[in-house]
Amino acid sequence: MALFSKKSSDTPSSEPDTSAEESPVVEHRAYTPGKGRATPKRTVAQRRKAEPPPKNRKEALARMRAKEKNERAERLAGMKSGDERYFLPRDKGPERAMVRDIIDSRRNAGPAFFAGAFIVLIMTMVGDPYIAALGNIIWLALAVAMIVDTFFICRKIKKMMRERFPKSTERLGSLYFYGGMRALSFRKLRMPKPRVNVGDKI
């Protein structure tokens, strides 16, 4: 009996030993293996998607017009927000920004001149020589006021340029013209939009 017991102990077991084997990793159904890079956002993926070519010339023109319209709207929004990247070349630079602030912080005679010129035009169309003569006097007074106002604008631009930008290469004549043209326009129509209020200290 001892002999048989010894043989049975030396005989290898028929059942495989699974103790040394690693347990399989259970993957969740929603698990997806990594791609080795970050997944792009939806907007980026949409931009990368190539636009199909136009079917005909009419469609190509329509796309071009839509693109130009979007670019104009983007530039206008950028100018209104004060983003200098969207400014015209004539509006770029700290010197011209200072000139705009000078004009926008004061009441100018330019808008009053144009409004008065319209009234004078109506007065001259009445046919009465006295009213027409009065209209001419008013128009002359407005013209003189605008010239005097422009003189003070130019003087202030020159003074502040010497104080803030003594080494600037901008020509004063160009800045005078730039400020004078902005002073002629109505405040709500100015572009770029004013960033200071009337009466603010520059």
Task: Throw out a few tags for this protein.
single chain, 202 residues, mainly alpha, 7 helices, disordered N terminus
Could you provide a short overview of the structure?
By secondary structure, this protein is mostly helical. The protein has helices at 2-10, 42-48, 57-81, 94-104, 109-124, 129-164, 172-184.
Radius of gyration: 39 Å
**Number of DSSP E strands:** 0
Distance between the amino and carboxyl termini? 115 Å
Regions with little confidence, pLDDT below 50 for 5+ residues: 1-14, 18-31
Q: Assign an overall shape.
A: flat
Folded structure, characterized:
Residues 1-14 and 18-31 have low confidence and may be disordered. The protein has helices at 2-10, 42-48, 57-81, 94-104, 109-124, 129-164, 172-184. The protein is built from 7 helices and no strands. It is mainly α and 202 residues long.
Question: In terms of topology, how is this protein built?
Answer:
Elements: H1 2-10, H2 42-48, H3 57-81, H4 94-104, H5 109-124, H6 129-164, H7 172-184
Helix pairs in contact: 4-6, 4-7, 5-6, 6-7
